[in-house]
Amino acid sequence: KELYLIDRWGAGYFDVNDDGNMTVAPLQERGRKIALQDVVNDAREQGLRTPLLIRFQDLLHHRVRNLNLAFASAISENKYRGVYRGVFPIKVNQLREVVEEILDAGRSFHHGIEVGSKPEIFAGLSVHTDNDSLIVCNGYKDDAYIRMAMIGRKLGKKVILIAEKLSEVRAILRIAAEMNVDPLIGLRVRLSTKGAGRWATSGGEDAKFGLSTSEILAATELMKQAGKTSAFKLIHFHVGSQIPDILIIKRAVREAARHYAKLRKMGHPIEYIDVGGGLAIDYDGSRSTFHSSMNYSVEEYARDIVYNIMDVCDDEKVPHPDIVSESGRATVAHHSVLVIQAFGSIEKVTPGPLNGAHDDHKLVKNLLYTLEHLTQENLGESCHDILQVKEESQKMFDLGLLNLDVKARVETLFWQAAERMQKIASRLDASEVPDDITELSKQLVDQHICNFSVFQSLLDHWALGGLFPIAPIHRLNERPTQQSTLVDITCDSDGKVSKFIDLSDVRDTLPLHALDDKPYYLGVFLTGAYQDIMGDIHNLFGRVNEVHVFLDDDEECGYYLEETIAGNSIREVLSMTQYESREMVAKLKAQVDAAIKQDRLRPTEGMRLLADFERGLADQTYLTFG
Ligand code: PLP
Question: SS3 of 513, please?
Answer without folding.
Answer: coil
